Amino acid sequence: MKKKKKTIKKAKRITKTKKPVMKIIKKRTVAKRRIAKKVIEKKPIKKKLVKKAARPSSLKLRRPKKEGGVSLDTVHMTKIRVIGIGGGGGSIVSEIASRIRKADFVVANTDTKALSSTKKAKKFQFGQSITKGLGTGMNVEVGELAAQEDKERIKKLFEGQDICIIVSCLGGGAGSGGTPIFAKISKNSGCLTYGIFTTPFKFEGEKKTEIARDALKKIKSHLNAFSVIPNERIFQIIDKNTPLKDALSAINEKLANNLEGLIEMIYYPGLINIDFADLKTILAGQGKLTYLNTVEIKEPEKEESVKKVVSSSLYPYTIKGARGVLYNIVGNKALQLSEVSKLSEIISQSVNKNAKIIFGIGQSREKQEGVKITLLATGCAVKGFLAESGPEKPKVKKKRKPRPRPQPKPEPKPEPKPQPAVEQPKIVKPRPKIKPTRLSNRVPGRRVIQPGLMTGQAKKPQPQPQFRPTEENFSDVKERRNALQLRKVMEDEERQLIEQEKAWETPAIFRRKRE
């Protein structure tokens, strides 16, 4: 029992001593925290520098600086929108959208299934009440009606845009029927419009080729510029054994490179800068055939490699005869003036002598070797370039006409010498003798008997010819008579005739022979 009591007492002592100790420890910790907070507030806070990730593009944008107290943020940023119309145009734009920045991409179609497969681009469906979410079935009229139905919605696509690039594969219903309506609305909205079109393969049939040609004729008048790429030209880039998907993506990749070079040329600064105002100058006009090409050259010194810029295997035409040229050269810090001069000389020799040429030069830190050139040429004068996309027509050989052989010139005949003039005698025409008119032998109050009637041989009276004035009755010199003179002559003739008639009034028995 004693042991139990001792244990209880010890426990009570411990509890008594612990309570005040715990209170003291808590007070100290609270005081330390307050002191620590005051010290932390007094210390200056250091900002940590965070490095931004490098841009994927070859050129880097510079931050806007203040010049003369004015910020460069007030400069208008060019707005570019790329619109793919139809199934083919939509697939091209959806593939390009994943590679290019600084532009807005839209895919417009009547087919709901085709729109669901697009990625990284805005979707725009039109003609829902006409097609019910299906395609046009290669009917151009259905595609045109579908676009006209949603005119007000289409207008909103072009509002506030500086330049619109329309991409379409001609030959179908939505592309060939809807593209002219989109282009017309874009023109009325006041923004620059540039069209990129592809034409069908030969194996797709002649009907589809005719649809593409008719559609292009309608679209031309509503565009500032347009480029045409026949699908048949793809065989000059790839092997014929290449799969279809890889072959079509090769065209898309080439188009993406061209558009990327054009957008970089407008947005990014350089030693000699190009902006939207320069592009607007070159694209000004209506229905200009345009050549757009972007090429990276490793050896700019060689002339063969430089000619790739001027002539592309995708286009059935070159920059020959172009009236407006805009090109940009981008290289590293070691870019030489001789290289720029050679490139510029080849481009200027290929275009029209009176062409308007604008060029720019830029430098990139990331570019180690070679030069990147983007060339835009408008007004390329070529006839019949669409013939390559359609069926081949047999060439008719024209028969050459034989050239006439040069004949020897006849010797000039000697001119006859002038002979002395001989005076010829004047021929005097004899004047005709005018016979006096025979007067009647009638005596007043006496009858005249005709001779011969006394012997019983009476002669029949013969009518005498009427007297008519002739040239023989007048002199050689012709006189001009007035009306009074002519009237007097006529009266004299009548008087003579009356006298002759009176002579025949007496019977033949009483007529006598005049002695």
TrEMBL record:
Q: Which residues form the Tubulin/FtsZ 2-layer sandwich domain?
A: 272-389
Tell me the ranges covered by the Tubulin/FtsZ GTPase domain, including all copies.
79-270
Entry superkingdom:
Bacteria
Q: What does this protein do?
A: Essential cell division protein that forms a contractile ring structure (Z ring) at the future cell division site. The regulation of the ring assembly controls the timing and the location of cell division. One of the functions of the FtsZ ring is to recruit other cell division proteins to the septum to produce a new cell wall between the dividing cells. Binds GTP and shows GTPase activity.
- Basic and acidic residues: which segments have biased composition? 469-478
Protein name from the UniProt record = Cell division protein FtsZ
Q: GO annotations under biological process?
A: division septum assembly; FtsZ-dependent cytokinesis; protein polymerization
GO molecular function: any one?
GTPase activity
Quaternary context: Homodimer. Polymerizes to form a dynamic ring structure in a strictly GTP-dependent manner. Interacts directly with several other division proteins.
Q: What Gene3D superfamilies is this protein classified in?
A: Tubulin/FtsZ, GTPase domain
The biased composition feature labelled Basic residues covers 395-406
Alphabetic keyword roster: Cell cycle, Cell division, Cytoplasm, GTP-binding, Nucleotide-binding, Septation
Pfam families, per database record? FtsZ_C (PF12327), Tubulin (PF00091)
> What's the source species for this entry?
Candidatus Nealsonbacteria bacterium RBG_13_37_56
The Gene Ontology CC terms held by the record are: cell division site; cytoplasm
Q: Which SMART domains match?
A: Tubulin, Tubulin_C
Recorded family membership: Belongs to the FtsZ family.
Q: Where in the cell is it found?
A: Cytoplasm
